[in-house]
């Protein structure tokens, strides 16, 4: 699987040493993640993204441009050959677990008990099980059992 690599930090990175901050700088706004979500669900055209999200045309144009420039989406000729369509790259598909984790958090915390919501299912129609990060020994990991190790400055 190919990896998109940013060679040098941008001057405007929120926190150039933090992978979370860099990721949020790339996809941390509401619309970008909704575009990625819909691309994962089969949206390909500008019109489909706009219809599914309700996003204003100018904002959608900017998000598609930025997601393409950062290597999360690619443009290709649509099967009709008359238009361009957007497809996820390897880097875009790598956001699946992020979208899934956000979805599962939302199912637990953004709906009242018993309130109806969409469900993500696998190819057999079975709901996707909850993601639980585990250590190499199989122990569940959370904010209480992990910490950030800062990079060391080279001398």
Describe the structure.
This protein is mainly alpha-helical. The chain has a domain of 91 residues: Winged helix-like DNA-binding domain superfamily/Winged helix DNA-binding domain (Arc Repressor Mutant, subunit A, Orthogonal Bundle). Helix content is 38%, strand content 6%. It contains 6 helices and 2 strands. The protein has a two-stranded antiparallel ribbon with strand order 1-2. The model has no long low-confidence stretch (mean pLDDT 90).
Structural topology:
Blueprint: H1 19-27, H2 30-40, H3 46-53, H4 57-69, E1 73-77, E2 84-88, H5 90-93, H6 96-109
Antiparallel strand pairs: 1-2
Keywords: DNA-binding, Transcription, Transcription regulation
Protein name: Helix-turn-helix domain-containing protein
Region (Disordered): 132-155
Which terms summarize this structure?
single chain, 155 residues, mainly alpha, Arc Repressor Mutant, subunit A, two-stranded antiparallel sheet, 6 helices, 38% helix, globular, transcription regulation, ArsR-like_HTH, DNA-binding
Shape: globular
Oligomer designation = single chain
Strand content: 5-15%
Largest sheet descriptor:
2 strands, antiparallel
CATH architecture of one domain: Orthogonal Bundle
**Which sequence of strands runs across the widest sheet?**
1-2
Top CATH class of one domain:
Mainly Alpha
Q: What name does CATH use for the topology of one domain?
A: Arc Repressor Mutant, subunit A
Helix and strand element order: HHHHEEHH
Mean pLDDT: 90
Give the strand tally. 2
How many helices? 6
Rg for CA atoms: 18 Å
Pfam families: HxlR
Keywords: DNA-binding, Transcription, Transcription regulation
Organism: Streptomyces ziwulingensis
InterPro entries: ArsR-like_HTH, HTH_HxlR, WH-like_DNA-bd_sf, WH_DNA-bd_sf
